[in-house]
Amino acid sequence: MGGDGAAGRRSRRHRAEDALTTVTAPHSPDRLRRVLEQALVYARAAFAAVYTLAEDGEVLCLVEWTGSPRTQFGLRDSYAASGGSPVADAHHSGRPRWLGPKDLAERAQSRRASADDFHLAVLPARGETADGCLVAVSECADGFDPDDRACLALIAHAVAHAAPVPSAEPGDLPSNAFSLAMDTGRVEVGDDILDLFGIVPEEFDGKVETLLGLTVPEDLPSLMSVVEADHMSIGDRELEFRVLQPAGPPKWLRLRGRLVPGGEGQPARLSGTVADASKLRSDVTDVARVQRLAAALATAGTVRDVSQAVVAALRTPLRADRIALAELENERLVVTVLDPPQPESWPELWRSEWRTEWPDAPVRAMPTLAAALREGRAQIWPAGAPLEPALADVGPGGLAVLPLPAGGRMAGACLIGWDSPHHFGPDERALLTASAGLAGQALMRAHAFDAEHELVGMLQRQLLPRRLPRLPGGMAVARYLPSTAGLELGGDWYDVIPLPDNHVALVIGDVQGHSAAAATLMGQMRTALRAYAAEGHPPDVVVSHANRLLMELETDLFATCAYVDVDLEEGTAWCVRAGHLPPVLRHPDGATDIAEVEGGPPLGVMTQAEFPMSPLRLQPGTLIALTTDGLVESVEADIDAGMERFAHELAAADPAHLGQVADTLLGNARRSDDVALLLMRYDGMEARPRRESWTVWRVPEAVGHARRFTRRTLRAWGLGVEIDAVLLVVSELVTNALVHTDGPVRLYLTLVNSRLRVAVADTSPRSPVKPTSIGWEATGGRGILLVEAMSATWGTVPVSGGKQVWSEIQLNR
């Protein structure tokens, strides 16, 4: 058996060697990708990628990959060469790194795909043409076995001789190639491409806008989605578009390209080729217009998206002067889009009676429109047709009214008008009818999406605090934005928890995933952290208890959390981080820094986990900012770069208006993930409390000692008017603690302005019960009634392992 296994292993390695010899031949096209594909075949990898060092030596950039989507495993477009990532470690040390689920969980910095399902391998790849790493992911339960590792070593060697080095400059280009800098729009273009656009090379100004200006306007949206970096992820791009010709129909061109990240300080570049595709495509037809409209409506999520897609698909091809789209809501027509949007482009009656006649008008106010909706088919009126004033001036040269049917009823109407006399051909009528049916169905879907999205947002908000408490010596604001991608509940949350002695706990967290389970777990974690904090535990114990609770829930989800306990009297804070982003501090002078806070693993990953506390020092005017990764991380943006951008935006904000600061920070949020943001400005307390405490020993004279301590303290504070009432409250509270509990007892006195707080802490969790009635023969039970009578307010709060009974007395000073 051992001999057969050895032979099998040699055979697999030999097959991998033979395959790599073939795909790395100089004449082999796409040889780097084909090399990576061997990792999927011979090393049981689910994903393989190559990162190479950019010319500036600062960043390891993703240049090629194959297999499952990399975002499934939380892999980035680039890593700092001097950072602590596995890619940087392997590149710096020159030794492979093999990481299992536990290793990946300990490295987790934000919510990513669950590390329970995959193993990560990073092997250095240095050779003649490359200086980087091979990265591979295995979803096998046992990870990469010895045979897999041997094959990956062969593939890493082949990668080192096949991978290109990312270049910050495009260099010399073939005649059919281009290279576009995504940040500036400067483009280098081969002579053949300029010839296709009809541009003389000496007259080209190097701006991508010059090329875009020669394209057919209908094709601009799809082309702009390629040349705008904000809407792209690293990868291949291919599309066809048309360019205008001096004479004759437009010419079809085909673009193939790849967006590659630049090095540190260098822009990403879109590089590729453009070829003539005219012989493969005919001129645009009404069928093609309908197909394009259907494609646009398929991705339109909201009612406004649908309206804009209809306008883009119809106004230019029909050479219309104006177009309006309106929804039908309870026998009223409500306009969602007017194009052009300027009021002067529409009838005077609309402008003078904007809220009664149009765009929010009862259908019965426009008989012509009402008749068209009843019949349910497109209606066309040529120039000079007798129409009511509200419609006649929309299209003096011709008017088309398209009812938008959906699900057996009318979803709305589309009005298209011309100023000069317009001839309606049969093809145009067919286009209008087909477009109306598509738009009606899309409006119904968009209504359902809007309603469900609003419901999701409402449910999410119900799990978050309704309002934040007022803080002595500080102010807090929070914001939450649900994701616009999909209709699932998110797991982001925040909380502000008032604590005794003018402390406050700032909490922000993120449960893995988007689902009802994630939202439910979020509510449980928020409640648990609030309960543990109210018990008086220090921050590390609060987070440890929450971690233990999550482990006991036996869920497959984990959560990240940042917990900051702020002492509003002293201006100090302790921070605990469980796999979450650190706080960002904005100091009074405007400088910002990302707090250097030690971190523990995410909650729910390890039972015996440590969550160290890190101190923060606050000056009056300091702003503490806590956020979730949805604000600082995306497919296009590295989380470290996102945090730096977040700190820069915070530095430019005015902390005097916290609400405006929060809105500004969320202004650039990418809505592919939900976002939570919590800000607190520490102002310092104008009147700091005076405090004293006393340990009550269990001796016969214990109550007398407590009374003498209280009398000395009040005299030292200059108080003497209500001293008898205070001494009575102290006597009753101390007596109750000594009689009804065991263990240590401690007395606390706190003076804030003219309000005195007396508190007695003991080790029993049982709260005192006020008797409903007391007979003359009763020997006890009157103490709590006396405390209630002498106090402005009183109560009991849990503390770590026991309780604290307190009374507040208003003094006449």
From TrEMBL:
Family annotation (SUPFAM superfamilies): ATPase domain of HSP90 chaperone/DNA topoisomerase II/histidine kinase, GAF domain-like, PP2C-like, PYP-like sensor domain (PAS domain)
Organism: Streptomyces fuscus
Protein name listed in UniProt: SpoIIE family protein phosphatase
Domain GAF, first and last residues per copy: 302-453
SMART domains xref list: GAF, PP2C_SIG
Keywords assigned: Hydrolase
Domain annotation PPM-type phosphatase: ranges: 474-682
Keyword Metal-binding: no
CDD domains: HATPase_RsbW-like, PAS
